């Protein structure tokens, strides 16, 4: 009897937590469970971490959480940006803080000032706080296009995803994702004026303004195309076009700020190119060429002909665009698919593929809504286990520092 009463009580408690009107409790529970898993994985790797450029052996969690780009955010939070661009021995712009936007380190610095916490603690607090906010808003976003149970599982995929450890370290991703999810939520509700402050901060947190401007532009075209069926009032036309133009402006804002401070019109792009120089040397930024340049580099590493890698890229791109028209993807609605299309074009245009590319693909998070649609319990359990295994693999390959490490996160 006691066992039966306990089981009955657990069922009632589970039903109460998962009730649609208490969605936020379920989201918080999923998020908390995911952080226990991810923290355990990071602590396990920290316990065997050797001395490296940022820490001594076996660092504590917070020291382990601020390595890699976290150190750049630490420099920015404490010292800001250089007024003169550093140069290497050949006279090329070297890696420097201008590659990292000010939104996240500014918030971390505010928390440091408010609480007297040091950078590592404050950065983790800010990242985890924004990650929880992202999970909560993500449920609301998914619940606009999916049933509540599928929306909750999409949140679980988001929280347990292979790259979810990045949500609790000294990186800007959790803040950027929160702002992006909020922006897409306002976009889907046609609350265009609400987008402006979100776009402003989002565009100064991670590079996103130009991609979002393209998505907004396509959204305006689509709404105009179906105006006879769905309506497109004049006030919304003005607001939507204004938000599109504002996002386009903010897409260039950081380039202009870097140029104004350093006196170099190409300060930001030259700084970004410094990170790909070890792979392909110093080259000009020509849109849509970096992926084919990478094929030339990786053919030497993998001993695969460049034309094969280029062909795989073309097939993958065409396959992804075809996937956006599949029935599961269509259930996400037009706006989320327009965002994934726009961001994928942006990535193809300006980014150089290497190990950080997986992190740069995180804004494609609406795809979790596709994987969340099958309702088989076995499928869902296996998918979450695969996500956890992916976390272990990603931390081992990209975060954990193993001697000379060519695979940064």
UniProtKB/TrEMBL annotation:
Keywords: Endoplasmic reticulum, Glycosyltransferase, GPI-anchor biosynthesis, Membrane, Transferase, Transmembrane, Transmembrane helix. The keyword Signal does not apply. It is found in: Endoplasmic reticulum membrane. Its main location: endoplasmic reticulum. The chain crosses the membrane at residues 23-48, 119-139, 145-163, 170-188, 208-225, 237-259, 279-300, 307-326, 338-361, 381-401. Pathway: Glycolipid biosynthesis; glycosylphosphatidylinositol-anchor biosynthesis. It is a multi-pass membrane protein. InterPro entries: PIG-V/Gpi18 (IPR007315). The keyword Plastid does not apply. This is Mannosyltransferase PIG-V. It comes from Rhodoglobus aureus. The lineage of its organism: Bacteria, Bacillati, Actinomycetota, Actinomycetes, Micrococcales.
